[in-house]
Amino acid sequence: MKKRPALVSAIILTIIIELILMILVYNKIGGERLPSQIARLTIQLILIFWVLSSKSNIGLFLLAAYHIVSGLFGMYSKGSTELLGQILIGFHFIIGIVIYFHDWIENKIGIKNVG
């Protein structure tokens, strides 16, 4: 497997943010949204394992698309006017772009992929 520091960093950041959001939402409103948040985390983890264990770019595309679509849906949600909502929308777009273009980013900053 290639070492892909930009991709792995984006994935780690995604998991950390998702877990923090799950805790914050649970503390604020309780467990009513927990099943949907667990489902989102599960989908992301499946895509992440697919990306990291496979040479296929389909999983990579789907993971990036997941974040872009999440950002688009976030733009039209009730919380999009709040600062945290806007930050999360931007986060999803940026992470989606970093995930999809990680090879280009690593080449531009001089990181060599080791096979």
Describe this protein's structure:
Keywords: Membrane, Transmembrane, Transmembrane helix. By secondary structure, this protein is mostly helical. The protein has one domain. The protein is built from five helices and no strands. The longest helix is centred in the first third of the chain and has 25 residues. The N and C termini lie close together (6 Å). The mean pLDDT is 85.
Class computed from helices, strands and strand pairing: mainly alpha
Q: For the report, how would you describe the main beta sheet?
A: none
Beta-strand content = under 5%
Number of structural units classed as domains: 1
Q: Overall pLDDT, averaged? A: 85
Helix content: over 70%
Given the C-alpha coordinates, what overall shape results? Answer: globular
SSE ordering? HHHHH
- Contiguous runs where pLDDT drops below 50 for at least 5 residues: none
The N- and C-terminal alpha carbons lie at a distance of 6 Å
Number of helical regions:
5
Keywords: Membrane, Transmembrane, Transmembrane helix
Transmembrane segments: 7-26, 83-102
